[in-house]
Amino acid sequence: xxxxxxxxxxxxxxxxxxxxxxxxxxxxxxxxxxxxxxxxxxxxxxxxxxxxxxxxxxxxxxxxxxxxxxxxxxxxxxxxxxxxxxxxxxxxxxxxxxxxxxxxxxxxxxxxxxxxxxxxxxxxxxxxxxxxxxxxxxxxxxxxxxxxxxxxxxxxxxxxxxxxxxxxxxxxxxxxxxxxxxxxxxxxxxxxxxxxxxxxxxxxxxxxxxxxxxxxxxxxxxxxxxxxxxxxxxxxxxxxxxxxxxxxxxxxxxxxxxxxxxxxxxxxxxxxxxxxxxxxxxxxxxxxxxxxxxxxxxxxxxxxxxxxxxxxxxxxxxxxxxxxxxxxxxxxxxxxxxxxxxxxxxxxxxxxxxxxxxxxxx
Length: 362
Known about the structure:
alpha/beta; 7 strands; 11% strand
């Protein structure tokens, strides 16, 4: 068997290849030009195991290895780097480190989404990017309106509001900018509407997304994004692992007997954090349990932390619904049953002096 540690870059890859039968170690560099990479891996006697760090430019290479029938493992770059204490870092050492981790069965392989999930992720990301660009255009138009004494708030985006902006007496260059922004705004509105329809169509075709849409405040965009970005719910050991994956846990700088917590780590999927925050603002208006939880956190922690807490709680709910394949009503019924039986309080630490907390479980 041949085991290959691959330090992958955009234009080239550095390899450390070991033949387990002969013990021969070969180090080389392949340029990503023409059919060089395909010809090299096609000529290797099977079986072959390739390990590489996760990068944004690797999908074509992973697809190539899958096409050639070569086993490929993609690792967490931070964990791989942490395995090397020395301060020297270059491509040959990185390839050798990956090879060493593969041989010692310590390679930190990560879960990879299927091609179908990757395509759906592209759809959700594309829509989100267009929404962000539309927001920038709206901010520019709002600035023009306010600078000329036109204050309409949300009504500015109606047909009448757009007509008022178009009728403002402006200097030639400012008028040209206004006209171009209004034309772009109309174009983005039409394109985003088409993307919304595509997202809704895909969400209705997928059982997981349909299940998530039964939760109040969760629409097709949030449901589809949650399903395709989480992938297999069973890969998360618990809710803390999920929150860590999305980046909704606090930074921590604790030492000795003193605990120091900071803001959100944000080491995770920024799009999921944004969508869960938007959906959480709608869910607290329709779900009584989330509403009670939000009001309590609002008093205890303030507005910002309360919104983050609701978003995290909503995300954990959606993960549980996906994992257990339960709709919202069944999820609530099971939670109420556990609360009444006391199972939901299992593992809760007692308060000081041995007193038991009698606060309701959220």
